[in-house]
Amino acid sequence: MLQYQFVESVSKKTLLGIRFWDPALDAQIQDGLRVTLTPIENLRQVNTAFRTKSGVYAFNNVPGMYLYEAFATEAEDVSPPETKRFILDVVDSRRQFSPVSLLVDLPLPYDGLFLVDDDAGSPSTAPKGFNLYSSINRTPSAQHTFVRGELIDRTNDEPAAHALVRVQTEDEFSWYGVADEDGKFAIMMPYPLISSSFGSSPPTTEGTRLFQRTWDIDVTVMYEPVTQDFIDGALQPDYSSILSQSQGLIYTETPNNDDGEVSELQAELVYGRDLILKTEDLSELYVQAS
User: Fold this and answer.
1) Which residues contact 196 (CB under 8 A, 6 or more apart)?
2) CA–CA separation, 257 and 277 (whole Å)
3) Widest Cα–Cα separation across the chain
4) How many helices (H) and strands (E) does the chain have?
5) Which of 50, 71, 151, 188 lies at a C-alpha separation of 20 to 30 Å from 159?
6) pLDDT at 18 over 70
7) What are 232-267's pLDDT values in tens digits?
8) What whole-number distance in Å separates Cα of residue 164 and Cα of residue 221?
9) Cα separation, 236 vs 90, whole angstroms
10) Phi/psi of residue 240, each to 5°?
C-alpha cells in the first residue's frame, strides 16, 4: 500500500518587481542588467534580483522584510505599515544604458510592478515600465539616430554631471538622456516622421532624397546641481533628484557672451548623421543652472 507524505508549502509575497523599459525601442529590457537592493542601515546586506520568465526583475528574502513576505495578509492589517528604506542600483553589464541609483521604501503602498500599477491615469497613458536611458556606449541601430554632446558648467568650467537632456521633435515626441559624471550624453531616438507630399495641391514636382532629409528639433537641459541628492553607498545620485531638476540655460556662443544665452536650443537633425551639440566653435556645449 502506497503511503503519501504531505510536504508543507509556504507562499511568499514578492515585495518588489520591476519591468525595465527601453523608450528608444519601445521594448522591454529583459536581460543584461544587474539589479541590487541594499538597506541604507546596513550597506553590506546586498540583495540581487532574479529574473522571472517574463523578464521582470524581482527580489526575494529582502533584509528586514520577512514579516511582509511570509505573512502578507497579517502585515497588511498593520496601519500604517512600517517601512524600510533601500538603495536600488541598476547597472547594465553591456554598458548600453546609463546606471541608476534610487531610494525605495518597502513595502510599496500599492500592489503590482514598481511605478507601473501606481498610475492613476488611463491605460493609454500608464507607464510601460521603469525607463532606462541610453549610455554613450550604446550600439547604434539603423532605424535610429543619436543626439550627442559633452556638457560643461559655465560657472566653474567643470563637467555638468548628471544633467537631464531632452530632445523634442517636430512630431512632438520627447526623448531623454542623462549625462554621466564627465558630462557626456547620448540620446538614441527613432527618426521623426517624414511628411509625404502625395496628394498636395498643387502637386510637388521635386522630391527629396532620403539622405537629404532634415528635421528641426528643440533641445532643453535640466540642470540644477544643488538639488542632486547623493546617497551614501549608492553608485549615482538619487535618480528622482536627477529627473526633477529645473530647466537650465544653454550657451550658443562663447561662454563669456551673455547674448548667446537661451533656455531652448534649436538644431537641425540630418538623416544618416549623429547630431553633436556644441557651443559655437567649441567641442562642448556650455550650460548653467538658471
Assistant:
1) none
2) 18
3) 94
4) 3, 21
5) 188
6) yes
7) 888 899 999 999 999 999 999 887 777 789 999 999
8) 6
9) 10
10) -65, -35
